[in-house]
Write a structure and sequence with these properties.
The complex is a heterodimer of chains A (about 250) and B (about 240). With about 250 residues, chain A is of the alpha/beta class. Chain A has 9 helices and 10 strands. Chain A starts with a strand and ends in an 8-residue tail after the last helix. Helix content of chain B is about 85%, strand content about 0%. The chains are: A alpha/beta (about 250), B mainly alpha (about 240). Chains A and B meet through helix 2, strand 6 and helix 3 of A and helix 5 of B.
Amino acid sequence: MIEVQHLTKSFGSTLVWEDVNFTINEGDKLAVIGRSGSGKSVLIKHLNALLYPDSGKVIIDGENIFDLEYVALRKMRQRFGILFQGSALFDSINTFENVAFPLRYFTDKSEEEIKELVNEALKSVNLADAAEKDTSELSGGMRRRVALARATILRPDFLIYDEPTSGLDPQTSNEINRLINAFAEDSHITSIVVTHDIHSVLDVAKTVIFLEDGHLHWQGTKEEMKNSNNKELLDFITASEYRIKNN
Amino acid sequence: MNALEKTGQYGLLIYKALRSSYDIKVYRENLVNELVKIGYDSLPIVLLTGVFTGAVMTIQTSYQLQLSYVPRTVIGSIVSESILIELAAVITSLVLAGKIGARIATELGTMRVSEQIDALESMGFNSVTFLVVPRVLAGLIMFPVLYIIAAAAGIGGGLAAGKLSGALPVAQFMQGARQYFFPWDVIFGMLKAFVFGFVITSVSCYKGYYASGGAEGVGECTTQATVLSCIYVLLADFVLAAILL
């Protein structure tokens, strides 16, 4: 379980958000929604201390991660997998090596075992044939799927997706959403999805938090979101050109 | 961010690198790659710089001394001493600040803005150990080696230019070179190269590691890394000369 308590963050004199509180339960699929620039990506980078807040706590299994020593923090980070917005694949190595990267450094597995696990991971994201390709040869959707295979190869407890469908065509977006659901349900991974794509929210989320005007403006389940009368939330959903009532 | 904060940030990065440099398993592969990139891949430019520096110095010194009654062997002394004490280390380092400094800053800057460094950290890696330590260490190891090669190429170039231009024969050049040769000059040159290697790689790592702002930010950090490396090399050159000579 992840508990976010009274989190406040600003960059210089610009306040990103303040007093953010929410809880992510084990096995949850949480969507973090909000307009561009509302600080969604900044918020999720606090969940494994890639960024530090001005004040507040992120408590995982009873420990405030911002109080951890660097070595303990690195161990804690290994419980997370992150799918970054731009995929963040390493350019200097090919697809296979990108997926194998965490295995080589954090496990004692033999070359044979690594090969088997990587091929299995690539197969699970429908990229069995792409192992030897350079990352520069991959399309945007393929890069996301390779990054997803890399993020899940060590079977993390928590998987964070930063705008997993942005810039992708509808079919590829659906494929990514399907994979997010598959990982959450088959591997019992707690998922946190940052998105402004309301289709993704409906496809993937169980619970939703909505950031607006520097605050956590609304939180609830997906069903509650569909029936909500919150003006700002409805404006956001309407602006996404989605007629939620007709869904 | 003001200059004091930047200095502190740079100091902290170097401290983190030093503190984690024992963890050789993490950066062994990167270190070998960097030794090849900084050392082997720089050989052509280092040889070229050395040969032409020596050749031009011989011809110009000969020109300056043509109307004097100074013995021609002095040309060999001036050229070889200048190369060993100053030129092989400084000119080579200034050239390498452009080649190596720019590469390091661009690589790390691109990794920063494309979130590859965040990806490393999020996996539980110490990104400083993985990225900064091998680059700085390779600079410390390879710059003195490149200095030796540049010095040899410079003296060779001077010798060849003296013979080909008719300024002075090989025997006279070598006689002059030997006359004022002190082993300390080579040690001093290597020490300079060692310091310049640290300055160029650490400044470039710092600029790249903390790059921000997309493609424009990477371009900016690369320019700053190259310019600052050159300035700090010249400053360090002065400080070392003032202290050690």
